[in-house]
Specification:
Helix content of chain A: 10-25%
Largest sheet of chain B: none
Shape of chain B: globular
Structural class of chain A: alpha+beta
Strand content of chain B: under 5%
Helix content of chain B: 55-70%
Shape of chain A: globular
Number of helices of chain B: 16
Order of helices and strands of chain B: HHHHHHHHHHHHHHHH
Largest interface: A-B, 46 and 48 residues
Low-confidence stretches of chain A: none
Oligomer: heterodimer
Number of helices of chain A: 12
Number of strands of chain A: 15
Strand content of chain A: 15-25%
Radius of gyration of chain B: 21 Å
Order of helices and strands of chain A: HEHEHEEEEEEHHEEHHEHEEEEHHHH
Chain lengths: 435, 349
């Protein structure tokens, strides 16, 4: 029989854990939610799936004029993880490219590319020119484990082609896959102090790990606050993340970002229809995302999984992929209040080495730093999304490849993995698949 | 599609007794056979029929583009409805490649992007496969074809078709055929049949048979929820006919009915031919539950049949009948996600 503390590890989302291992495992509402809030979740759910079309239209008007995709759900398929294009002729679907030029904007963030902004929109409504096409190339390299087995990693390179106006020199590109959107309300409810407690930017304790917080521009508060969402933790709240995605990814204005991303560009629509979604819809969508449950772990007491868990700890993966966190007391949002959750992230930035670097700073994150990605639910990726692509650009084609890309602060842990016997490596992967 | 319900966990529920009220006389079943037969007799059969119908639709539209007679137009419309029927009858199992390969949005997105459609019809582009693939979802699939065939008020005449519209219709029909063939292949000869049928026996996607059974159960409950709480609820509560999904052909009630038939098909393990199924499983363990499920299916279909005007009108003039149908569908969803799910969790590993 499991002890109290062991049992809780199954409940990755605390009381908001869902016992569902079907293809809808990321798409369910918090099990414990008030009737009123369930209704708001429903409204947000419908809006999340709404397909936008070009204005003027009687329904879902305002797509673009330049955009990446047409609905939240088209990138965050089944509220899960996007995959990169299958071959060079397949268009980007669940991936977007952030852009910037050297320098820093007045808010401390990336400096916009004149004529393009801080994000590329590679699609446009009919009659309007898109910003540019994206070309992805991969180069494959084979390596050997100390035990003699080989593995292969692919390195992507990104180029822009057919830009509607010439690109200036020095444009930095950073590809970003659509990450899963469940569990975010719980992550948002973790107190800042709880996160900062584990920051050690200068590695004062000499353990080789130097987690760093990313202070980013908070549009609502008009100041910098702790970022925790996005691949480089560049968004401080779910609301701002949602509004930013509406605006940049779909060209839909809201009260948070009331100006089209194309303003000042040739593609600007010059229409008097902003904001294109009502305030309450934006808030409902943000709330929908905040109240998506976390799937229960699978086979957490399997002998091999437990062996893998020990190896995970021995290799010190948990230094960044912190297994557990406590959400703060939230009287205003009792559904997320005071829960023990198991997201396997410290929500801090870490230098992941040259191999994974995008060389594009994002507020306090430098060109080699990435936020520790949450690992909860990762074992359901194949089931829910039908693929196994990981990391910020989907370059890793398996959990093993994702581990082998770890460098920088994670180099030691990666080497520990490489030095394991094949049996042990498989056990560690099986542990990850149980999350 | 979003599913809101709680499934009892295997680990935490200690089931001491199952409701063994009566058993059917032919009470043996094989969980492995049920999964295999679902794939062959429901998924493959439905998708193959859909692919074949879209092929016929393409031929009909090609004939219409060559000769715009009333008979040819009527044939296109009839085939559109037949394709639609097969598609809606596949929505009771909206999992697997149709979802993960992004096929559903390219076949069945709503609304139609009218501005962009006008723009496409007025441009000089050649409507080849590459061009159509580059278009947004709201410009292709069932509803743009529906709009072009019927017109916004449903009464478009044969002289109102421009040559660009005809070219575009033909290109969209080719695209629809291609997408439906793709999803059919993914179950016929692609990996997904193996993943599903070998659940718990080497499948990467379904590590237990229980997971595969629950995928079917979740999908059945999911489409009930989508119909009652989405497709019917949104236009009704907003009192807005613009939110109705097949308004041009006035096909919404038929769509909803086919969605419930899809639930029935999954339950019976039958599109044309019947194999081992959830029905057999339930009858072997709890005969009265089988009766209850069948009653709720038929009540839902009857209630939908009591809506006698197109849905866009019914939300104004037949609200009682609409609400009765929604409630009947919700009842069906409840018995699936509670009783049926519980029985599966008790009996299938």
């Amino acid at each position: 029989m499991l002890s109290e503390s062991e049992w809780n590890e199954w409940l990755s989302g605390g009381k908001q854990t869902l016992f569902d291992e079907s293809a809808g495992a990321f798409s369910s509402i918090f099990p414990e939610i008030s009737a009123h809030n369930a209704m708001i979740h429903e409204i947000g759910d419908k809006a999340f799936e709404a397909t936008f079309v070009s204005a003027p239209a009687p329904l879902n008007s305002g797509l673009g004029p330049i955009f990446n995709n047409v609905s939240c759900a088209s990138c965050h398929i089944a509220d899960g993880r996007g995959k990169p294009p299958g071959n060079s002729s397949e268009p980007l679907s669940a991936m977007l490219i952030r852009v910037s030029i050297p320098g820093v904007a007045s808010n401390g963030g990336p400096l916009a590319v004149p004529g393009f902004g801080v994000q590329l929109q590679q699609r446009s409504i009919n009659g309007v020119v898109k910003e540019a096409d994206v070309i992805i190339n991969y180069s494959e390299q084979t390596f050997t484990f100390p035990d003699g087995e080989t593995y292969s990693l692919r390195t992507p390179t990104y180029q822009l082609a057919n830009s509607y106006i010439p690109l200036p020199a020095g444009v930095m590109l950073s590809p970003r896959m659509a990450p899963p959107v469940f569990g975010l309300g719980l992550l948002e409810a973790v107190d800042e102090s709880e996160i900062i407690k584990y920051a050690d930017e200068n590695d004062a304790n000499g353990d080789g790990i130097s987690g760093k917080p990313n202070y980013v521009w908070n549009v609502i508060k008009g100041t910098h606050t702790l970022g925790r969402f996005g691949w480089k933790a560049n968004n401080p709240t779910v609301l701002q993340q949602t509004a930013g995605a509406y605006n940049e990814d779909m060209g839909i204005t809201s009260y948070v970002f009331p100006e089209e991303s194309s303003k000042g560009q040739a593609q600007y629509d010059n229409r008097n229809d902003d904001p294109e979604i009502p305030d309450s819809i934006l808030r409902a969508v943000s709330f929908y995302v905040q109240t998506l449950a976390v799937p229960v772990r699978r086979s957490a007491d399997d002998a091999t999984v437990l062996q893998g868990k020990k190896l995970f700890n021995d290799a010190k993966c948990g230094s960044c992929h912190r297994p557990a966190m406590q959400t703060g007391v939230r009287v205003d949002f009792p559904e997320v209040s005071n829960q023990r959750i198991f997201p396997y992230t410290d929500l801090l930035l870490h230098d992941m080495g040259e191999g994974l670097a995008d060389h594009r700073p994002d507020f306090d994150a430098n060109g080699s730093e990435w936020r520790t990605a949450p690992l909860w639910g990762i074992g359901l990726t194949q089931k829910v999304n039908g693929h196994n692509f990981y990391l910020h650009d989907g370059r890793a084609r398996s959990l093993q490849e994702a581990i082998l890309w770890h460098g920088g602060e994670a180099e030691t842990a990666k080497n520990a993995f490489k030095n394991m016997s094949k049996n042990d490596r498989l056990a560690l992967i099986k542990f990850l698949q149980s999350l | 599609m979003q599913i809101r319900f709680i499934l009892l966990s295997l680990a935490s529920v200690l089931v001491l007794s199952s409701c063994k009220k009566d058993k059917s006389s032919s009470d043996d079943y094989s969980s492995t056979q049920i999964l295999n037969d679902f794939s062959v007799n429901v998924a493959q059969a439905t998708y193959n029929d859909l692919a074949s119908k879209t092929e016929q639709l393409h031929q009909a539209i090609t004939a219409f583009t060559q000769n715009q007679t009333q008979a040819n137009l009527d044939n296109c419309k009839s085939l559109w409805r037949q394709c639609r029927q097969a598609w809606e009858q596949s929505e009771g199992f909206l999992f697997g490649p149709v979802a993960t390969d992004d096929i559903d949005p390219r076949i069945d997105t709503w609304p139609v992007d009218f501005n962009s459609l006008d723009s496409v019809l007025n441009n000089q582009s050649v409507y080849d496969e590459t061009y159509v693939n580059s278009l947004e979802d709201a410009l292709k699939g069932f509803h743009p074809v529906e709009y072009l065939l019927w017109g916004v008020d449903g009464n478009k005449t044969i002289v109102q078709f421009t040559s660009r519209q005809l070219d575009y219709l033909e290109a969209l029909a080719a695209n629809l055929k291609s997408l439906t063939q793709q999803v059919a292949s993914s179950w016929n000869t692609g990996n997904y049949h193996n993943e599903f049928a070998n659940a718990g026996n080497g499948s990467q996607v379904f590590t237990t048979q229980h997971a595969a059974f629950m995928e079917m159960v979740s999908a059945m409950a999911g489409i009930c929820e989508e119909v009652a709480d989405g497709k019917m609820e949104d236009p009704l509560v907003s009192q807005n006919a613009m939110l109705e999904e097949s308004p041009f052909a006035k096909n919404s009630i038929i769509d909803f009915t086919n969605n419930i038939k899809s639930v029935e098909n999954v339950y019976l393990g039958k599109y044309i031919t019947q194999g081992q199924s959830l029905e057999r499983f339930v009858r072997a363990n709890n005969l009265s539950l089988d009766g209850a499920i069948k009653t709720k299916i038929s009540t839902a279909i009857t209630a939908l049949g009591n809506i006698t005007v197109p849905f866009g009108e019914a939300i104004f003039t037949q609200q009682t009948q609409v609400i009765n149908a929604q409630n009947a569908i919700r009842d069906l969803k409840n018995i699936i996600e509670n009783d049926l799910a519980n029985l599966v969790s008790q009996k299938i590993n």
